[in-house]
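Q: C-alpha cells for this one, please.
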Amino acid sequence: MNIKEKAEHAAELKRQGRCNCCQAVTAVLADETELSSGQLMKLASGFAVGMGNMQATCGSLIGAVMVAGMKTDGAGTVRAARAISESFAGRCGAVTCRDLKGLGADGVFCPCDKCVENAVLAYGEVFGEK
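A: Here is the predicted structure, written as C-alpha cells:
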C-alpha cells in the first residue's frame, strides 16, 4: 500500500469506529515498526480524544510521532516530530483536539477521520513515503 492508500484506510478505520484516532494511524503504519498492529493498538489506546479530555495533542498526530520514534530508532525523532507536527498543523489548522474540534470557536477545523488521514500523509511527507 502506498501512503495515500494507507491514509485512506486509516480514515476508514476511524469512520467505522473500529479504533480511535491514534490507533487508526499506528495500525496502518505498523509495517514501519518492529511491533505488530495489535501491540500498537494497545499502546495507542489511551491517546483518544486528546488524551481523554480534549486538552492535549490530537491522537492522530501522537500516533504518527510514535511510529516516527520506531522508524528512527529514537535518533532524530524530535526533528521528525516537529516536521510531522508542522505538516499536520498546515493540513488541519491546529494540533490540539480541542482546537481541531472547534470547542470555544466557530466550528470544527478538521473532523477526526480527516485528522487521521492528514497524520498519515504528514508522516509520509517527512519520511519520503510515496
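A few notes: The two ends are 9 Å apart (CA to CA). Residues 101 and 111 are 7 Å apart (CA to CA).
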